[in-house]
Amino acid sequence: MSNDRPLSCLIGLIGRGILRSKSPDMHEQEADAQGIRCLYRLIDLNVLRLGVDALSALLESAERMGFSGVNITHPCKQAVIPLLHELSEDARAIGAVNTVRFRDGKRFGYNTDAAGFAESFRRGLADSPRAHVVQIGAGGAGAATAYAMLKLGIDRLSLFDAVPARASDLAAKLAKDFGDGRIAAVHDLPPVMAQADGLVHATPTGTREHPGLPVPAELLRPELWVAEIVYFPLETQLMGAARKLGCRTLDGGGMAVFQAAAAFEIFTGLKADTDRMLRHFHTLDT
Questions:
Q1: Is 114-254 CATH 3.40.50.720?
Q2: Nearest to 115 by CA among 72, 73, 77, 144
Q3: Tens digit of pLDDT for each residue in 136-172?
Q4: Which of 70, 79, 83, 167 could bridge across to 138 with cysteines, CB 3.0–4.6 Å?
């Protein structure tokens, strides 16, 4: 990071269906608290009526307009990788990028989702059993949460995705770093859910754009802990169903804040105050 304190920064978020994102509030308020001016813009593919194939042009436009960098979300976290010059170690291992920094004519890709989820898990479910965890979703966000869970030391991770090949590909990729015996793609949820200690949900299901439950409600049981990545709304249908049964739960708010704090540091070179960001996040309408 540069030792020169920035006076301002222009950053943004590229993704689909992101108009309710709290990233602008989180970054701009933390910048204000640190005495710098930050403008955070939402670049919504739906609003622009663009597909993922427009990602290269959007990155080029952001660079030309003087952006310090951009966050990347669904469905672009993996598609962005071929458009970058360098990847951080975590981004390369995960195979997904959620933060791109523009510097010296190059694009540097990072993944702050994994560290953000891990920190949220340590704060909210640190003492939970983790011999066997089932994860729903093997896309860009799912790659990060799977990586985080394996780094946190779970014994066995079962991956399920609506596109089975995606789960198989992610399992094979992560097995190179964590070993074949700890991670596997699964295609039949009921038997693995019946044996699991916890459930990680890592798809857009539960957002206002994609309402519903990511798993049948009958597969939930009181002994299961449930961790969510969706944070708008904070109380997803999955969180509500799990809490009604008495499950221990972790909503998506912590991951949202901690990944944003790490991205803020990448963009500005300034260390974010995560406790302050958490307090501010909980004042927002989610």
A1: yes
A2: 144
A3: 999 999 999 999 999 999 999 999 999 999 999 999 9
A4: 167
